[in-house]
């Protein structure tokens, strides 16, 4: 190759071989390596009419870079992260940071101290068996007794609203939780019994539900009692706040404001797990306090009537149980929802004389949808708890406790 060919295609000076796809001198090659992928090159101030080489240097970096691209230089062959000092820093950083216990053991830090079961330790890790058949037997007794007769109401939803008022007026054994010194296994089972029978009694006021086969009734009760409890408790908390605080006070309160706590009450979870109360809060809802949140605030603002709350409870429960069990229960649930939706329309139009109730309906459905989202989020945590064997419990009817 003659000397005339070794000319830099960018600046016209003596070239030193092919660099990044073009014949270039070392200066232009180094320039392109620095700026080829840079996003901070200033645009040309002379409308791209610069003299490329003046008094021994380039007057415009932008035009010099454009000429590099024009003659065929490319950044595809650039190599990054080859600096030796970075490798040394990474090695030294790895040496400084010790391996965490969960990485070392290959187990989540929530279950590090949960010893695996073995034939030798099977008795030690034997699970507590909870037989809830007696609850279902009591629920069947309530269903057989039915609601009071005769009972006059405008429609099915009106009858359910009457039933809801009645069960709310009965003794509420968990109304004064702060007076209970300890909350353990006995109190938990009593609370489950209370809500299962309370919800079952409410369902006896729904004639279409009473017409179902006994097996379907029990299966639906098993699926919806814990969901019914969530909305019923939310409504009870909102009602209590409205009674004790003025509207102006509630409006000024920020979300997260502490409303009530049971710090003085001892919560015993040793009967269901070897983990502490604080550790178990990751896997399940354990309410030791009540704080104002967006869902509670929305329920306070809605202030539903007994008719509206009965519709919300039935819509939430029947929609959930239909999606969960599918098949015949799904068809029954959809029919129930249709009947009660027609009754709600009749309530608004004929009793309340309100034909435009869309915004209120939307607010009710927002609350129900948020509860369903919370259920799905908690279900993921429950699945983790089952996977890692967090709870030392076995139920005779485990499907009843999937969404506690």
UniProtKB/TrEMBL annotation:
InterPro entries: C.elegans_Orphan_NR, HNF4-like_DBD, NHR-like_dom_sf, Nucl_hrmn_rcpt_lig-bd, Znf_hrmn_rcpt, Znf_NHR/GATA. GO terms for cellular component: nucleus. Residues 5-80 form the Nuclear receptor domain. It comes from the Eukaryota. It is found in: Nucleus. Pfam families: Hormone_recep (PF00104), zf-C4 (PF00105). SMART domains: HOLI, ZnF_C4. Residues 156-404 form the NR LBD domain. The keyword DNA-binding applies. GO terms for molecular function: DNA-binding transcription factor activity; RNA polymerase II cis-regulatory region sequence-specific DNA binding; zinc ion binding. PROSITE patterns: NR_LBD, NUCLEAR_REC_DBD_1, NUCLEAR_REC_DBD_2. Keywords: DNA-binding, Metal-binding, Nucleus, Receptor, Transcription, Transcription regulation, Zinc, Zinc-finger. PANTHER family: NUCLEAR HORMONE RECEPTOR FAMILY, NUCLEAR HORMONE RECEPTOR FAMILY-RELATED. Belongs to the nuclear hormone receptor family. This is Nuclear Hormone Receptor family.
